[in-house]
Amino acid sequence: MADVIAYAEMRDGTLRPVARETVSAARVLADELGGNVVAVALGGPGSADAARELAGYGADRILTAENEAFANYDPDSAVRAIESIAGDMSPVAIVFPASAQGKDLSARVAGRLDRSLASEVTEFDVEDGSIVVTRPVYAGKAYARLRFRETPALISLRPNVFPVVKKQGAGVAEALDLEPGEVRTRVSGIEGGSRERLDVREADVVVAGGRGMQAPEHWKMLDDLVDALGPQATLGASRAVVDAGWRPHGEQVGQTGKVVSPSLYFAIGISGAIQHLAGMQTANVIVAVNKDPEAPIFSVANYGIVGDAFEVVPRLTEEIRTLRDSGG
Q1: What pLDDT sits at residue 129?
Q2: b/e string for 222-248 if b means 16 or more Cβ within 10 A?
Q3: What is the pLDDT of residue 97?
Q4: DSSP 307
Q5: Same domain membership, residue 218 and residue 170
Q6: Structural domain total, the chain
Q7: Is the Cβ–Cβ distance between 73 and 187 less than 8 Å?
Q8: Within the chain, which residues score under 50 in pLDDT?
Q9: 35 and 147 assigned to the same domain
């Protein structure tokens, strides 16, 4: 059977949005291969109940290990779990999210299984029985198509690229016989940001500012635009802004920050350096505002406004608020 293992990332006893994306994508791949989807989730007590939701996204089997030691990501235990399941099943593919946790785990599993890993995959297909994937290279300036010659194919999926699709799977829930091993890494604490907005990787709309905002106190203007757009929107920033200390690193979008693929991306006062484009050019719709008509950001923008952000953004915010208030 050409089965596909999908690693379902959890946090605080709940599924992360990338877990649903990963299982949905694994369902598509398994359907093309004629196999089943086996979701694997590790978490603290009670996480098995949350993981059962994955049946609605195509999981045929849901394997869960519950232990207080797994409440925070334990890489050694996660690797042992994937390795053991892969040894029992001989899957055709193992799919991970290309999140911080997924990148760490997929690389460890690739080393343990001695198999190649295709990371940040944006497309996949099955050709002549082999899995073929597409991933960005050269900071997103080109794309490479890779064919796996051996199984299991190890794939990490770029977040927000693959749609979440509800499709009922068999959803057989099983407990993994997994005990914590020797602790080599321990999470001593987690510090969250003070903002209550979405992470840039999970938001459907991102409003990002660059050096064209001139000073950190001007971010109130972008805050107002985010508020007008609604709860699905959040703030982002360019590397130059973060390096200057204007915004926290958690908001940085780019090759050395976070890769995002929202439905709508606003680039305000961002010139569009290659480093930044590598992190956002897969957004469905890109709106750029910049005074320089030759700014590289316009080469990837769907809509470009050549003008002063301090004049354009307040007007844009006002129009969006009017539209939302009217029910549009």
Answers
A1: 86
A2: bebbbebbeeebbbbbbbbbbeeebbe
A3: 94
A4: S
A5: no
A6: 2
A7: yes
A8: none
A9: yes
How far, in Å, CA of 328 to CA of 248, rounded?
33
Q: Give the pLDDT score at 253.
A: 94
What is the distance, to the nearest Å, from the Cα of residue 141 to the centroid of all Cα atoms in its chain? Answer: 20
CA distances from 23 to 15, 16, 27, 44, 157 (A): 11, 12, 6, 20, 11
DSSP 72: S
Residue that is written with structure tokens 């899957």 in the block: 91
Q: Which two tokens stand for residue 297?
A: 């950001």
Which has the closest alpha carbon to 117: 102, 128, 107, 104?
107
Domain limits for position 308: 205-325
Tokens representing 223 are 């805050």
Identify the H or E element spanning 289.
Answer: strand 285-290
Q: H or E stretch including 38?
A: strand 37-43
269: its two tokens: 């006062």
Look at residue 51 in the predicted model and tell me its pLDDT. 93
Give pLDDT, residue 195: 55
Residues 171 and 209 in one domain: no
Nearest of 118, 149, 116 to residue 134 by alpha carbon: 118
How high is the pLDDT of residue 71? 84
Same domain, 99 and 239: no
> Which residue has tokens 């959040």?
234
Close Cβ partners of 56 (under 8 Å, ≥ 6 residues apart): 166, 167, 168, 169, 171
**In angstroms, rounded to a whole number, what is the distance separating the alpha carbons of residues 90 and 321?**
54
159 domain residue, yes or no: yes
Query: Whole-angstrom Cα distance, residue 107 to residue 116?
Result: 9
What pLDDT, on a 0 to 100 scale, did the predictor assign at position 302?
Answer: 96
Sheet holding 205-209: strands in order across? Answer: 233-237, 205-209, 264-268, 285-290, 303-306
pTM, 2 dp: 0.78
Burial of 139 (0-12, 13-18, 19+ CB in 10 A): middle
The C-alpha atoms of residue 18 and residue 21 are separated, in whole angstroms, by 5
pLDDT tens, position by position, 132-170: 999 988 777 788 999 999 999 999 998 878 888 899 988
